[in-house]
Target: L,D-transpeptidase family protein
Amino acid sequence: MNNSHKFFYLILVFLLSIFIACSKKQPAIHDKADKVLVFKAKRKMQLLKGNNVLRTYTIALGESPEGHKGKEGDERTPEGKYTLDWRNAKSSCYKSLHVSYPNEQDRKSAEEKGVSPGGMIMIHGLHPSITWVGRFHTLYDWTNGCIGVTNAEMDEIWKAVPDGTTIEIKP
Model:
């Protein structure tokens, strides 16, 4: 076997390893979450029941993720405590859960600056144009301030997180 064949097989084994690692299926979540916790800097989101972590996801955020959302169009994900208050089964990004941003403090802060606080912050799946990237969507912050997960993860979150669940978004 010459060096070019060895290199080809090495690349093939490497790619298969990545595919297998990315396609491992976790056991189903049987409990309902009572809190969602987001760590923006780590790009992680956890579903919690009491003090128990039911599942951890790697997420994508807005294109300018550092800092609290201050105005419409700033590409930031808000920080603080909110509620997942309604859902959209026919979202342009597969399915989505709405974050109750802006709250009264967010509105007041935006008003003092003479800007709109924005809104429609969601946890959502992938837009049909990018579903092919799967879990690799997390290599880039691509949302407009929302929290992006894969469609399979969104299905799981959809079942495990009832409307009215608290979401805390940390820097």
About this structure: The chain has three helices and eight strands. Helices lie at 3-22, 104-113, 151-160. The beta strands are 35-39, 44-49, 52-58, 80-91, 94-99, 122-124, 147-148, 165-170. The domain at 29-170 is CATH 2.40.440.10 (L,D-transpeptidase catalytic domain-like).
